[in-house]
Predict the 3D structure of the following.
Amino acid sequence: LSIFAPFASPEAEFLKPNSPVRWFAGDDAATLLAAINTRMLKTPANWLGFFACGVHLAPEALLTAGDYIALHPAWCVLYSDEDAPGADGNGDAPQFKPDFNFELLRSTDYVGGIFARRDALLAAGGYAQNPDGATYDMLLRLVDHAGEGSVGHIPEVLQRVPATARTRATKKEARTAIIANLDRRGLVPDILPATP
């Protein structure tokens, strides 16, 4: 498990070379993105998970993801439904997501935390080329590289996401990522604000 954060590790154990949890601290987004890309180059893992701090994966999340990976070898990216914890810590607000729809993704960052195949991610340029909206930008680049059929939806609630961990691209970040996506496809963007 690798954690990338804008503050120092709260546990000295995470800084030991043989620790199963590795902590990488950086003062700014560019430093953290460089650390993520460097770690991605060094890891022997075939699949990587990108989740905000505070997200709790269901006990069966990794096994379920592995089953879907085996069933759908063309998939390079997986995402699942999610829930929000209530006052008692149990989930009380499930968010059921649709199967992958590229046009919907261009209009809203609905996917959330993902698992991504390392080789496809490296071929698409790594984790982030733009610190703003990094995961959203990464997903758009993966689709550009591997095609719309490379993204799979697991229709099960595998993530519990507290409000503090609900990270989606802001309008400005999404605009930057979408313009880059359209540019890669040779399209001239004309992005207008939504009507109220």
Notes: Helices lie at 29-42, 61-71, 102-107, 118-123, 134-146, 171-184. The chain has a mean pLDDT of 89. DSSP finds six helices and seven strands in the chain.
